[in-house]
Design a protein that fits this description.
CATH architecture of the largest domain: 3-Layer(aba) Sandwich
Number of domains: 2
Number of helices: 19
CATH superfamily of the largest domain: Periplasmic binding protein-like II
CATH class of the largest domain: Alpha Beta
Order of helices and strands: HEHEHEHHEEEHHEHHHHEHHEEHHHEHHH
Radius of gyration: 26 Å
Number of strands: 11
Strand content: 5-15%
Distance between the termini: 88 Å
Structural class: alpha/beta
Shape: globular
CATH topology of the largest domain: D-Maltodextrin-Binding Protein, domain 2
Largest sheet: 9 strands, mixed
Length: 435
Amino acid sequence: MKLRTVVMATSLLTLPVAARAAEDLPGPGKRLKLMHIQVSGETRAALKKAVARFEAATGAAVNAEAVKNDMFKQKLDVTLGSSDPPDVFHTWGGGRLAAYVKENLVQPLPGDLPTEGISPRALNLCRVGGALYAVPVDFSIVTFWYRKSVLEKHGVQMPKTADELIEACVKLCEAGVTPIALGNKGHWPGAFYFDYVLVRYGGGPEYIKKSVKAGQPARTEATEAARAFIARLARVDAFSEGFNQLDYDDSRATFFSGEAAMTLMGSWLLSYARSDAKADTLMPDLDIGPFPAMGQGHDAEVLGGTNAAYAVAARSRHKALAIKLVEYLTDAEAAKDWAAAGRMTARRVQRPEGERLLDKAYALLESAPRVQQYFDQALGPALSEKHKPHTQRAFAVDPPRRWVRFVVGGVAVLALLIVVAALRSAFRSGEGTAG
C-alpha cells in the first residue's frame, strides 16, 4: 500500500499538526510505541539503555519493535498513516522524512529541545522548511573496507584511484580471490557504487533536481559515468558470484571470513565486526579508506547521512512524552553508548580510546567539504523505490565468472592437445609413406 493511499484514506481524521495540543507529561500507566531498525546486538543494547532511563524517569512504559531495514520502510509507510502509529519512529531524515511532513504525519519538535553539540550537518538532514522534525544520534559515512592480510598476501595496495581499484580486482581474481564482497538483493548496497560516482563527479544536486522534476531517475553526465564505472567493475569480475541474489548479511559474512578482500559499506560495519564471533582476529585485520579518486575535483566529498534519528508521529496520543523519549534516545549518554558500540555519533562526545577505525572515519567526515546524503533517502519514498532498481541495472553486465574462465581455458588446452596429436599422427603417417 502506498503512503499517499494510506494518508488519503484517513485524511478526514487528520488535523493540521500545528493545531494539536500537547498533553501533560506525567507517564505512569501510559505506554508508548517505538519502532526502530536496531537489530544488531550492540546498538540495540545502547537503545535499550536509553529507553530504560526514560522509563525510570517518567514511569511510562515503552514497547520497542525492531524491524530490519528493508521491511521497516514498508511497514512504517503503512502504520504511520494509521489510527495506531508508533509514537516515536526511526528516520534517516532527508526526502523520506519531508514526504511524511508534507502529509502531516510528523510532529514538529520544540525549539528548546536540547541539541547542543550535535553536528549541524546531521541536524540539517532532519529539518524540513527550517523546522526540526527529528533528532539524530548517529551520523555515518560510506567507505571502502579492506582485509589487510588478504591484500598483503597477494601484493595488492589499498587502491587510491579508480584505475588502481580495477587493477587490484584483476590481480585478486587471477589469484582466485573475490575482490569485493557485495550482496545486492536489497539494491541499496549496490547503489553505493552508483551514488559515489555521482559524488565524485559533483553530480548529486543535479541528479536530485532533475529526478524530482521528472518524477523518475534522471540521466545526466554523472549517471552515465556511474554506469560506465560499474560496468568496468562487473567486467573484471569484481563482485561476489551471484551478488544480485545475495543480501547484505551474506556479503558481510563473506568479507568477515576473509573470502573477499574488500567491501564498500557504511561505518556501521564496525559495530558488526566488534560483535563477530572472531572479533579478536578480525578487528586488527580491518582497515578503511575513501572511495577511489576520479580526478573531477570532488574526491574529498563523502557519501553518508543520519543513520539513526528519531521523530514523533503527529497522531501520537502521548506527544509530550514521545518528545521526551526522543531526548533520551539522542542525549549525550545515549551518544556515548553508541560510540562504545563502534558507531559514529551525531553529537560530539568522548570516543573510546584505541578506536583507530572510528578515528579514521571521523577524519574522513571532518575533512569532507561536503556530505551527500544517500540518494535513496534524499529523494523521498516514491523516487527512492525507483532509484535503487535503477542503479541495479548498471550491474547487468555478463562478467567472465571464474568457472567460465576455467572451462574456457580447459577447452582451449584440450583443443591444443588434439591439434598437437593430429600433427604428430600426420607426421608419422608421412614418414611411413616416404619409406
